[in-house]
Amino acid sequence: MKVIDTHCDALLKLQTAKLQHRNLDFRHAPEIETNLQRLEAGNVKVQFFAIFVNPEKIAATDQWKHAQEQAAIFHEEIIAKNEHVTFIRDWKDIHTLAPGEIGAVLTLEGAEAIGNDIEKLRTLYQMGVKSVGLTWNPANLCADGAEEPRGAGLTRLGKEVVRLNNANDVLTDVSHLSVKAFWDVMELAAYPVASHSNVRAICDHPRNLYDNQLQALIAKKAPIHLALYPVFLKQDAETATVADLCKHIDHICALGGEKNIGFGSDFDGISHYIDHVTDASGYAYLLNELQKHYSEEQVRGFAYQNFMHLFPG
């Protein structure tokens, strides 16, 4: 059974190693949870790779350079060196992947790198970015993030970014937004997505979504992709099981969102894991376990088909 995973942080890991003069081979480096070998073992058909520049560690003057470096790593280390990895330039490219090919989608997590320069966003589109999350956890010039105490919504710049996303068939990711910014995005976005968020009614974490937020995504036929991160799955826990993930799936299904559910693992950005699901190869175990709770058709939807029916194009 194939998988579409809408979030990982492999680019940051590869960049960090490069800056430390260490060479990590994307094909099989054990440090990379979404390396090619593991993606193949987990039958991941499409993997989204996030450009992420940590605003708490990288000075504002260096953020654009760091984002460009990660985009270059995506093209040079993941695409150019692996003939079976196909760059998804247009959403329709997902439909034409050959057997044995893995689609790679470039995304942006947090708009810090563009500052207030909208032309930098256009440059990212040209580099292939197909999904944009306006914030990480703090505030920036576009919006407040999920852990910004002020809890404000989108700025004028943030609204311009969403409109440009719409015009370019680019997803607008709500996963790290404040509640107010989430609602501002939902009012404007043609293609909203929650790339790696879970259910706040089950696990009260600021990165998770309230029921009315989930219902708004369902009403707009937007993908809701669950993170495989125990901290977002179970209150005050560092470990979790597939049964804990099922509670989130069941809750979204009860809200009418069975056809919206997918996975955005957050691999390479997390340090705790669901039992037996510690990297991309763990999808084989995960999907097998899910079929003990749901029909094969339902699990196929969660794994792959739901996104195929909802994404632009």
Q: Explain this structure to me?
A:
This protein has helices at residues 10-19, 36-41, 63-79, 118-127, 156-167, 179-188, 211-219, 230-233, 242-254, 283-290, 296-310; strands spanning 3-5, 44-52, 85-87, 102-109, 129-133, 171-173, 192-193, 224-226, 261-263. With 313 residues, it is an alpha/beta fold. The protein has a single domain, classed as Metal-dependent hydrolases (TIM Barrel), CATH 3.20.20. The strands form two sheets. Strands 1, 2, 3, 4, 5, 6 and 7 form a seven-stranded parallel β-sheet that branches. The protein is globular. The two termini are 23 Å apart. This is Dipeptidase.
Q: What does the largest sheet look like? A: 7 strands, parallel
Shape-level CATH architecture: Alpha-Beta Barrel
CATH topology: TIM Barrel
Task: Assign the structural class, choosing from mainly alpha, mainly beta, alpha/beta, alpha+beta, or little secondary structure.
Answer: alpha/beta
N-to-C SSE series?
Answer: EHHEHEEHEHEHEHEHHEHH
CATH superfamily: Metal-dependent hydrolases
| Number of discrete domains | 1
The gross shape turns out to be globular
Separate helix tally: 11
Layout of secondary structure:
Elements: E1 3-5, H1 10-19, H2 36-41, E2 44-52, H3 63-79, E3 85-87, E4 102-109, H4 118-127, E5 129-133, H5 156-167, E6 171-173, H6 179-188, E7 192-193, H7 211-219, E8 224-226, H8 230-233, H9 242-254, E9 261-263, H10 283-290, H11 296-310
Parallel strand pairs: 1-2, 2-4, 3-4, 4-5, 5-6, 6-7, 8-9
Task: Summarize it.
The protein has 313 residues and is of the alpha/beta class. It has helices at 10-19, 36-41, 63-79, 118-127, 156-167, 179-188, 211-219, 230-233, 242-254, 283-290, 296-310; strands spanning 3-5, 44-52, 85-87, 102-109, 129-133, 171-173, 192-193, 224-226, 261-263.
